[in-house]
Amino acid sequence: MNSSEMQAAGRWTGSKWAMLALLVVARTNMGLQFQTVADSSEQLVSAMGISWHEIGRLIGLYMVPGVFIALLGALLGRKFGDKRLVVFSLFLMAVGGALMAVADAYGVLTAGRLISGVGGVVVNVLMTKMIADWFPGRQVAFATAILIVSWPLGIALGLVINGQLLTVTTWPTVMWLASAVSLASMMLVWLWYRDPPGLAASTTKGFGFKLEITRVEALLCIVAGSLWAVYNVGFIMLPSFGGNFFVSLGFSPVEAAFLVSIASWLLILLVPVGGYIGARWGHQNLILFIAFAVGTVGMAWIPVASSPVLIFIITGSIAVLPAGLIMSLPAQFLRAEARGTGMGVFFTMYYVGFATLPEVGGWARDYTGDAGAPIQFGAIMFFAATFFLALFLVLKKRLVPSAAATGSAS
Residue 346, Cα to own-chain centre: how many angstroms? Predict the structure, then answer.
């Protein structure tokens, strides 16, 4: 590095935390927009004449584009520039939100949700990569953990703000708010985000794509990504359907929204705690199994408990702990040259699960007529997470040594 590059690096060193704060604020909009359908579900069902099954489908549709885009996100950013593509993606989120706000039919709602989802997926993939650019070395794990909590922060803010709005206005206002916040986020990134020094020279090098990944690495990424998917689907049943459940118990919509927002606030506070405990104490697999067991039993118990609020809080507090540990699983076996492709496979499986499984929770609500059925479906998802973790550990123990020995790419 020459003297001018060193001077530039020195000037930018103090800015990385500002860039992290900027991206956290902009990414918070993802959670806020994702939550709009769940928060507006009562009004959508009554005003649009749609079923709870269709509400579940709309919730999952936000993730559908990730099935096709997650593996390509980093490549698209390299071709067109991360900042430029993120700005465009935030614009798509604004367009999708506005389309939902003016929707007069379920098909229009679906189109708006998909457009928003395309933007959200690219924002998710590229902002994670942008943080890695700014925080090389040991700091990347901490910075990424901070970025991750912007998603539940957005969900929690949506639960509180949308819950209040819907007591005095109708569901299109909630969609317009998410659209406006998307535009504000777009302007923030456009005006103030800057790449770290030296990055520009390594970007836009063409559209080539080489899959530097072994079959074993791909298999383990599929299993780990499936684990991440069912874990998230299980947990998202709380903020997505918990409000309707508490309303069915006699709580007001505002009270129900406040109670359900606790799940997101717990996620914000305790995800870093779970990662810290795993790093300091070790025994990360044991932590995962215990948290999954609590999630399975607790979510099955909430709808039939005499004190559902207490069980809700206890379950949420423990079930959120393993999020950071699950995200670290691919790092246990991926070679450096396979990390990009491997994480693409990992996130593809996540989006496949998240795009399809929430609909089952809505279907359970329709089929049983029980507002607690989606939460009990969440218990099944936590049990599935236990299965995928056990499968991952068995495969990793049996296959990783042979993969290291062969080192062949597929």
Answer: 13
The whole-number pLDDT of residue 404 equals 43
Q: What is the DSSP letter of 306?
A: S
Task: Let me know: does 58 contact 109? Beta carbons within 8 Å.
Answer: yes
Report angle CA 140, 143, 145 to the nearest 5 degrees.
105
230 and 145 together in one domain: no
Measured CA to CA, the distance from residue 385 to residue 232 in angstroms comes to 9
| Residue 173 and residue 244 share a domain | no
State pTM to two decimals: 0.73
Is residue 203 situated within a structural domain?
A: no
pLDDT in tens, 125-168: 778 778 777 876 556 656 777 787 888 889 888 888 988 898 88
Instruction: Using the predicted structure, report yes or no on whether residue 205 has a pLDDT greater than 80.
Output: no
Same domain, 165 and 235: no
Which pLDDT tens digit goes with each residue over 65-120?
Answer: 888 887 776 566 667 778 998 999 999 999 999 999 999 899 999 999 999 999 99
Residue with structure tokens 């996540």?
350
Query: Based on the domain organization, do 42 and 188 belong to the same domain?
Result: yes
Q: What is the pLDDT of residues 38-48, one digit of tens each?
A: 889 889 998 88
CA distance 114 to 195: 29
Instruction: Retrieve residue 373's tokens.
Output: 């059925």
In degrees, rounded to 5, the angle at the alpha carbon of residue 40 between the alpha carbons of residues 34 and 42 is 140
Specify the pLDDT at position 240.
81
Q: Give yes or no for a contact between 99 and 112, defined as CB atoms under 8 angstroms apart.
A: yes
- Compute CA distances 64 → 51, 174, 410, whole Å: 20, 22, 27
Closest CA relative to residue 344, chosen from 358, 334, 354: 334
Is residue 295 within a helix (H) or strand (E), and if so which, with residue range?
helix 284-301
399 touches 219 (CB < 8 A):
yes
Mean pLDDT, residues 255-283 taken together: 74
DSSP string, 8-41: HHHHHHTTHHHHHHHHHHHHHHHHHHHTHHHHTH
User: Is-contact 28 22, C-beta < 8 A?
Assistant: no
Q: Is the pLDDT of residue 9 over 70?
A: no
What pLDDT shows up at residue 409? 37
176 shares a domain with 293: no
What sign for the dihedral angle of Cα 134, 139, 143, 144?
positive
**Domain encompassing residue 43:** 14-192
Considering its fold, how many domains does the chain have in total? 2
